[in-house]
Specification:
Layout lengths: L6 H12 L2 H12 L4 H8 L3 H13 L3 E6 L2 E6 L2 H15 L17
Antiparallel strand pairs: 1-2
Helix pairs in contact: 2-5, 3-4
Pfam family, one: HTH_5
Function: Metal-responsive transcriptional repressor for the cmt operon. Binding of cadmium or lead causes the repressor to dissociate from the DNA.
Keywords: Cadmium, DNA-binding, Metal-binding, Transcription, Transcription regulation
């Protein structure tokens, strides 16, 4: 059964997912079009194992979903509005001081 998470939890999950550059790259790639893990790994230049771990994190966060396609599994954004949210976040970040970095940029974590 699906339940709707409270707003704070949703934002925290989204933030944790975006805290990793590889997960950001995955989300941006899926914003363009659904993709298969092997193709994503090749496109992003990461190992399939590493990509699989990040996809699992994004799936657990509720940001991506799987779609069976024969013997393969395709990944896509869980909701098309996520693509719009990513675009909005990118333009908002571009509007701030780009030479500054986040003090927690090295913090790793998952949902």
């Amino acid at each position: 059964m699906l339940t709707v998470a409270p707003d704070i939890e949703v934002l925290a999950r989204f933030g944790r997912a975006l805290a990793d550059p590889i997960r950001c790259r995955i989300l941006l790639a899926l914003r363009e079009a659904p993709a298969y893990p092997a193709d994503l790994a090749d496109t992003l230049g990461v190992s399939r194992t590493r990509l699989s771990n990040h996809l699992a994190c994004l799936r657990d966060c509720g940001l991506v979903r799987t779609a069976p396609d024969g013997r393969r599994t395709r990944y896509e954004l869980a909701d098309e509005r996520l693509g719009h949210a990513l675009d909005d976040l990118r333009t908002a970040v571009l509007a701030v001081q780009t030479e500054r970095t986040c003090p927690d940029a090295e913090t790793k974590g998952c949902c």
